Amino acid sequence: MVLIKEYRICMPLTVEEYKIGQLYMIARHSLEQSDDGEGVEVIENKECYDPDHGKGQYTEKRIHLSSRLPYWLQAVCPKVFYVIEKGWNYYPYTVTEYTCSFIPKLHIRILTRFEDNAGTSENCLNLSEETLKNRIVDHVDIAFEEPAEKHYKKEEDPKFFKSRITGRGPLVEGWRQTDEPMMCSYKLVEASFEVWGLQTRVEDFIQKCIRDVLLLGHRQAFAWIDEWHGMSIDDVRTYEKDKQTEANDKLRQSLPPAMETDKAQENN
């Protein structure tokens, strides 16, 4: 059975504010995580259209992460290893898919919806009865859960951070019941790795990695609010484009020659 989890991450923001904060956070976070041949490389970023959701933004990325895998996965992965991320952003609804050409049995699908509440909607993603029965709901607390020690920064800790522009923060015990404004990111994550003997272990590992990224990213989106609050959508798209160019250049400078050859062949 595919492992299905629904993460609910509350933020002291409105859904409209988070539209800007999310784009800023992803662009900046991707640049900061790009180093020593690992990180996020943007392949495409363009407008798209869906008959049900209207205009949106399509992105395709390569996430290079060989050395970040556990040793038991590194043993079977090539040295040059990346995951392909495809995303369709019809804010406040998004779809994201992850695949890997080296591991065709690996597939991750994330459905997301943002709402102005404290995580109280039971089925905002319009899930089927079967999915509702099998999902595991996991509330992620950006203030009182901490990321891995290597990612921890006191200035990004919501328990200590106070926004100079909005006056929000620090977040104290019970903040999700008392603070205003309040929004929630609902994310349904389906992780599938249908390989006998490894399925449960790998799917658990994938869910843990995704949860860790969600915790860190949402903490940063709030802690960086004074950097992005007041930006227009055009402002943040320009920022996003600039950071994507920086991240791509940084990553390509450290890619092995074999990868550069592969990329050149793809472009021809």
TrEMBL record:
GO MF terms, alphabetically ordered: phosphatidylinositol binding; phosphatidylinositol transfer activity
Keyword Transport assigned: yes
Keyword Transport on entry: yes
Top-rank taxon, per record: Eukaryota
Record field: compositional bias (Basic and acidic residues): 242-252
InterPro entries in UniProt: PI_transfer, PI_transfer_N, START-like_dom_sf
Domain Phosphatidylinositol transfer protein N-terminal per the UniProt entry, residue ranges: 2-244
Cellular component aspect of the GO annotation: cytoplasm; nucleus
Region (Disordered) location: 242-268
A UniProt-annotated Pfam family: IP_trans
Family: Belongs to the PtdIns transfer protein family. PI transfer class IIB subfamily.
Name of protein: Cytoplasmic phosphatidylinositol transfer protein 1
Organism encoding this protein: Anopheles dirus
